[in-house]
Amino acid sequence: MYEILLVVYSVVALALIGMVLIQQGKGADMGSSFGAGASATVFGSSGAGNFMTKTTTILASVFFVLSIVLGNLTSGQIKQSDKWENLEAPAAVTVPADTDVPVADENPASDVPN
């Protein structure tokens, strides 16, 4: 269930970003009223604004509801204990029993040839 909500959340977020990016600003209608732009679009002169505004509102509402639901689902999960949680306990130090490093002799002068 959680994974399905994450996928839906991602799709809604991408759709919301796309809808916001393709909308025109409030001042963009001024240029089209003087013939500077293509005022006759697929949705009509004002139909696209209403359709896109309503779609953006619905997507934003779904986005916020999904954010709250996913936040509530995530907050109920038990966190793993952190090794830095209890700083009072001494750290466990492990020393390897057999090392590959050669040990030097106590009398290094005996190895030197005369």
Tell me the span between the first and last alpha carbons.
81 Å
Helix content class: 40-55%
Largest sheet, described in full?
none
C-alpha-based Rg, rounded: 34 Å
Could you tell me the strand content as a percent range? under 5%
**3D shape:** elongated
Secondary structure tally, helices: 3
Number of strands: 0
Residue ranges: pLDDT <50 for 5 or more in a row?
none
Assembly status? single chain
N-to-C SSE string, H for helix and E for strand: HHH
**What would you call the structural class?**
mainly alpha
Give the overall pLDDT as a whole number.
75
Describe the protein in words.
It is a single chain. The chain has 114 residues and is mostly helical. It has a domain at 1-12 and 51-75. 49% of the residues lie in helices and 0% in strands. Helix 1 (2-22) packs antiparallel against helix 3. It is elongated and about 105 Å long.
Key words describing this protein structure:
114 residues; mainly alpha; 49% helix; 0% strand
Task: Give a quick summary of the entry.
The chain has 3 helices and no strands.
Annotate the secondary structure layout.
Layout (H helix, E strand, L loop, with lengths): L1 H21 L5 H6 L13 H29 L39
Helix pairs in contact: 1-3
